[in-house]
Design brief:
Elements: H1 3-29, H2 53-67, E1 72-76, H3 88-92, E2 98-102, E3 108-113, E4 121-125, E5 128-129, E6 157-163, E7 177-183, E8 192-203, E9 208-220, E10 224-243, E11 247-248, E12 250-251, E13 262-263, H4 284-288, H5 292-296, E14 300-301, E15 305-327, E16 330-352, E17 370-376, E18 382-388, E19 392-417, E20 420-436, E21 439-444, E22 452-455, E23 463-466, E24 478-484, E25 486-504, E26 508-527, H6 529-537, E27 557-558, E28 567-568, H7 570-576, H8 579-584, E29 588-589, E30 599-618, E31 621-644, E32 647-671, E33 674-685, E34 696-697, E35 705-708, E36 716-730, E37 733-756, H9 769-782, E38 790-814, E39 822-835, E40 847-857, E41 860-869, E42 872-875, E43 887-889, E44 892-902, E45 910-917, E46 924-928, E47 934-939, E48 943-951
Length: 952
């Protein structure tokens, strides 16, 4: 243990002891009358609010913040079904310090908090842990502890709490913060009520209207309540964009530095044109117009491609909640949530084939491009040029995803005496995910005189055009490139039981508790690509034989004005090639279609805590204290599939560790409307679930890089300090400022080692055809046997410390003195990161802010929201073998409108609603280190939701 860690723990223990003594003194001297605002409120303890609408929601959030001892924020629904935004991720995005990870359709999926990514946030449902088996959205790839919050509709939830500094009773696991989702319950609004929400959603890219709606009904008696609700949406999606799958440079021979993901032509291929004679040696340095040094590191998109994704995304969720309150001191509740989400998309890309292009012997080998008259900028990014002997391939995939989730959460609260309270809860959840993603790829005929004209001098992404009409099925230039049948099945299961006992009153109380939680996760992949490809296009995919030979390809393609290039007839191809039987017989493989690791994890956690809460006086003003210690013992078993000969064999690894997590939170009432806060704590997040799986994943299409798991990874720990306060201006209004620092130990870095392909123990026959061709071509070019070719193996290790410093500011202010019903809410966050390795937490902006202006009067409510996040590191480098190359997310601001009008009849029970999302049609753009090297660009478009909300 480091001396700094020892000092920190001693200091926290001392602070806890001092806090305990102060509380004991306060308890012995307290007046008989308790103070209602001494400790943070629990569910249901917030005072009744008489205002309605937007102000009611803001008033509840202000009250919760004012009453809490720890640092945090809350969002409340003013009424059942009225949480702002379309899903819970979008709702949380309105809090300071929160940033969204968005799907390519623009919808928020996961949240990052205070400088750390989604896997560092703990997400709870009614105070209990949850896992959802989904994998992060359309493109997938999430294999860690993230929770996809787009799965949960805002209509079925009434409160979201974000704890930024922990208390001992908070479940461990979230270094960044802990999010608690609280679903609607019948006693949230006593009596009999029915809420109906019906909307039509128009999205600009596809010019279609999709249905969206919810119905929630509740009834209470004096002692019993029942609430049931269902919410659903079916969205028609069309997303156009650009993808590069990274940037790279070409190989000019032995010793050439850089990514070397392709090779230039060494002799002039047939039909190259431009006055070049086929078979003659070619000096590509001379034809390029660059120096050898410039061409050696000249960056081009690996697969510069226009992309089109179309289809439907649907989600239906159902909630049932029962409450029984036989007395004021005994409450029972049980909550059940079920949800199902489907994505049924087609995705087509027209790829300029730079990656893996070059001389070779396969039917797909291009012979290599010849660069002509290139220009580069100061970063050696190619800005213009012609590329003779180019090749293109159409990559057409089906995305069929289904996610199911259900959770049951019983709880009981009992107060046998005025000074004793017992809470007991349990939870059980299951989730299943299935992703079927077949791909059919068609290549322009190699050495057929195809030129590429490349311009990269402005705009969101480069212009890539050709002398060949790529939207003509009958251009005589299509042949098979490859086929894939790939399937992923994911399962998660959680179960737990929590006991909390509190003795004391609002002036001084002691809490103790115990927790048991188990999380089981399985990711398994299945691949039948080799057998299927052999049947479709024959040995080596030459297209001379098979169910669809090259001579018949044109009849399975059609032109598309929407895509701008040819697209396949998916159903005709599936029927002609007996696709279903190959899919259903796919054997297990290593590595998912999204490139992530596969395997199983079983994690059992035993936890316990003690917590002291109370109030003491200093200089005649109240000091609120929350302090104590949490202990967690983790027992982890991971299983990873490994190749032994021709068989897949599971390798099991086990580990155990324990964590002591002290914390102290202080709030001092400088005046009735001024609070100062301070906090110190130690928190932990368990290691990346995808990185601890044993075995090797080899999914790089260029066959250059493999990824190895590390079951010995230790949990991340963080020493945290917070200092801040608020000035409450009255009503909903307050101004808040807080500073924080996190020192994260055990941050992982990726170490790279060299190994031969043969030492990976991966059968050559199990590789994708693109990998086989890449290895064969490299062996031919170097004279080295395939098994002796060098492969870079990347493995995560705990080597780095990460320090995050930040400032958060919030201002909520009514402007009734100017215009009755007018007001605004604003918050901003500044973050600074540093680490011993030079790496930073991914997906986090240095600057971000959220502005909301609202008007609410005479039955009309209007809210304008603008959320802006500065640029950030999306993925640490090196990427694609380019030293120092990170993936970077562009700064992005989104402007949304929400409005409603209360109709003056039907007892004002009906309300017209209008929501406009992404009004300015902002794209989602990521770059490869440099601003003019677009990695991906998506255009989600503007969405308009119009409808009616009725409350009876």
């Amino acid at each position: 243990m480091s001396s700094r860690t020892q000092i920190f723990r001693v200091a926290l223990f001392a602070a806890s002891a001092i806090g305990s003594l102060s509380l004991a003194q306060a308890a012995s001297a307290q007046d008989a009358a308790p103070q209602a605002d001494a400790v943070a409120p629990q569910d249901g303890d917030v005072a009744d609010i008489v205002v309605t609408g937007i102000r009611a929601s803001l008033q509840s959030a202000t009250n919760a913040k004012k009453d809490a001892v720890a640092f945090g924020d809350s969002i409340f629904a003013e009424d059942i079904g009225k949480l702002p935004a379309t899903n819970l991720a979008e709702t949380l995005n309105r809090m300071p310090g929160v940033r969204l990870k968005r799907d390519n359709n623009g919808e928020g999926t996961q949240v990052s908090i205070r400088g750390l990514g989604p896997s560092f946030s703990k997400v709870l449902l009614n105070g209990s842990q949850i896992q959802v088996a989904s994998d992060g959205g359309t493109n997938g790839g999430s294999a860690n502890r993230e929770v996809d919050l787009d799965f949960f509709p805002s209509e079925l939830f009434t409160r979201l709490d974000l704890a930024k500094s922990p208390s001992p009773s908070t479940l461990e696991g979230g270094i960044a913060g802990t999010v608690n989702l609280r679903n609607a319950r019948p006693f949230d609004k006593e009596g009999t009520h029915i809420t109906v929400v019906a909307q039509g959603q128009y999205t600009s890219p596809n010019d279609k209207i999709s249905p969206r709606g919810a119905i929630v009904a509740s009834h209470t008696t004096d002692t019993f309540g029942i609430l049931v609700g269902v919410a659903g949406v079916k969205t028609k999606t069309r997303i156009k964009g650009f993808e590069s799958v990274g940037w790279t440079d070409g190989n000019l021979g032995v010793g050439d530095a850089g990514g070397n993901n392709f090779s230039w032509a060494s002799v002039v291929p047939a039909n190259a044109g431009h006055g070049l004679v086929a078979g003659d040696p070619v000096d590509v340095v001379a034809t390029s117009g660059l120096t050898r040094s410039q061409l050696s590191t000249a960056l081009l998109p690996r697969l510069g491609r226009e992309s089109l994704t179309e289809g439907t995304r649907s989600r239906i969720s159902a909630l049932a909640s029962l409450e029984w309150r036989p007395s004021d001191t005994l409450h029972f509740a049980i909550d059940g949530l079920w949800a199902k989400s489907t994505r049924d998309y087609t995705k087509v890309n027209m790829n300029w084939q730079v990656r893996n292009s070059g001389p070779g012997t396969s039917a797909q080998s291009t012979g290599g491009m010849i660069p002509i008259d290139l220009t580069v900028d100061d970063n050696n990014v190619v800005t213009s040029g012609t590329f003779a002997n180019s090749s293109y391939f159409l990559e057409a995939s089906l995305f069929k995803q289904t996610t199911k989730f259900w959770n049951i959460n019983p709880s009981v609260s009992w107060e046998p005496t005025d000074n004793l309270k017992v809470n007991l809860s349990a939870n059980y959840s299951k989730s299943r995910f299935f992703r079927e993603q077949p791909t059919w790829a068609f290549q322009t005929t190699p050495n057929s005189g195809v030129d590429t004209y490349y311009e990269n001098n402005g705009g969101d992404y480069p212009s890539i055009t050709s002398n060949l009409d790529l939207n003509d099925p009958d251009n005589g230039s299509w042949q098979w490139y490859r086929q894939n049948i790939q399937i992923v099945r994911r399962k998660t299961e959680t179960k737990g039981a929590h006991l909390d006992v509190m003795y004391g009153d609002d002036m001084f109380n002691v809490k103790v508790g115990a927790a048991y939680d188990q999380a089981i996760r399985s990711i398994r992949a299945y691949d039948n690509s080799s057998a299927y490809q052999l049947s479709v296009c024959g040995t080596g995919c030459t297209g001379a034989t098979g169910t669809i030979p090259n001579s018949q390809i044109a009849q399975y393609l059609k032109s598309s004005s929407t895509a701008g290039f040819v697209v396949p007839d998916f159903n005709a191809i599936k029927q002609a090639t007996d696709y279903a039987s190959y899919r259903d017989s796919a054997p297990e493989t290593r590595g998912a279609v999204t490139g992530g690791a596969t395997g199983d994890m079983d994690e059992k956690v035993l936890g316990a805590y003690f917590e002291l809460n109370g109030v003491t006086e200093i200089a005649g003003r109240d000091l609120h204290i929350n302090t104590g210690m949490r202990y967690a013992h983790t027992d982890q078993e991971v299983i990873g599939p490994s190749q032994v000969g021709t068989a897949i064999v599971d390798i099991t690894s086990r580990s155990k560790y324990e964590n002591f997590l002290p914390s102290i939170n202080l709030t001092y009432d400088v005046a009735d409307n001024i609070k100062l806060r301070a906090s110190a704590s130690r928190t932990m997040t368990r290691p990346d679930a995808g990185q601890i799986l044993p075995g090797v994943t080899f999914s790089d299409p260029s066959a250059l890089v493999a990824s190895a798991g590390n079951p010995d990874l230790k949990p991340y720990t963080s020493d945290n300090y917070d200092l801040g306060g608020e000035f409450y201006t009255g009503g909903i209004g307050y101004i808040g400022l807080s500073a924080f620092m996190k020192n994260v130990q055990g941050f992982t870095v990726t170490q790279s080692t060299q190994a031969t392909f043969g030492s990976l123990n991966i059968p050559f026959s199990s590789l994708l055809s693109t990998q086989q061709n890449a290895l064969n071509d490299r062996a031919t070019a170097t004279g080295v046997a395939v098994n002796d070719l060098a492969i870079t193996v990347q493995r995560p290790v705990n080597l780095s410390d990460l320090k995050i410093k930040g400032l958060e500011g919030t201002w909520v202010q009514p402007l009734d003195f100017f215009v009755k019903g007018l007001g605004f809410s604003a918050n901003g966050t500044y973050l600074k990161q540093s680490s011993s390795s030079g790496l930073v937490a991914e997906g986090v902006s240095k600057y971000s802010y959220n502005l909301q202006g609202f008007y609410e009067n005479h039955g009309l409510s209007v809210s304008l929201n603008y959320v802006w996040n500065g640029k950030s590191i999306a993925l640490n480098g090196p990427q694609n073998g380019i030293t120092g190359a990170d993936l970077k997310a562009d700064a992005r601001g989104q402007f949304d409108l929400s409005a409603g009008y209360e109709l003056p009849f039907f007892n004002k029970a009906m309300r017209l609603t209008l929501d406009v999302l992404n009004i300015t049609n902002e794209p989602i753009r990521t770059t490869f280190e440099y601003s003019n090297a677009a990695y991906s660009v998506y255009y989600p478009g503007t969405s308009v939701l119009a409808g009616i909300r009725a409350n009876f």
